[in-house]
């Protein structure tokens, strides 16, 4: 039981870290596109 719990915690941590990187990527892309539109 503890082994399964440990694995689930590890998977959750990896998923959260990956999601954080993905959010940063999307935010950077959005700012880049907005900046590009402002320049015309």
Summarize the structure.
It is built from one helix and no strands.
Q: How would you explain this protein's 3D organization?
A:
With 40 residues, the protein is mainly α. The chain has one domain (1-40). It contains 1 helix and no strands.
Keywords:
about 40 residues
Total strands: the figure is 0
Poorly predicted parts = none
Mean pLDDT: 85
User: Strand portion, in percent?
Assistant: under 5%
Structural class: mainly alpha
- Helix count, DSSP H or I runs of 4 or more residues: 1
Distance between the termini: 58 Å
Taken in chain order, the helices and strands follow as H
Residue share in helices? over 70%
Q: What's the number of structural domains?
A: 1
Task: Tell me the Rg in angstroms.
Answer: 17 Å
- Largest sheet, if any? none
Give the overall form: rod-shaped
Task: Compile the SSE list and pairings.
Elements: H1 2-39
């Amino acid at each position: 039981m503890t082994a399964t719990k440990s694995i689930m915690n590890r998977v959750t941590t990896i998923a959260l870290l990956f999601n954080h990187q993905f959010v940063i990527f999307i935010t950077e892309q959005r700012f880049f596109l907005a900046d590009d539109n402002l320049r015309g």
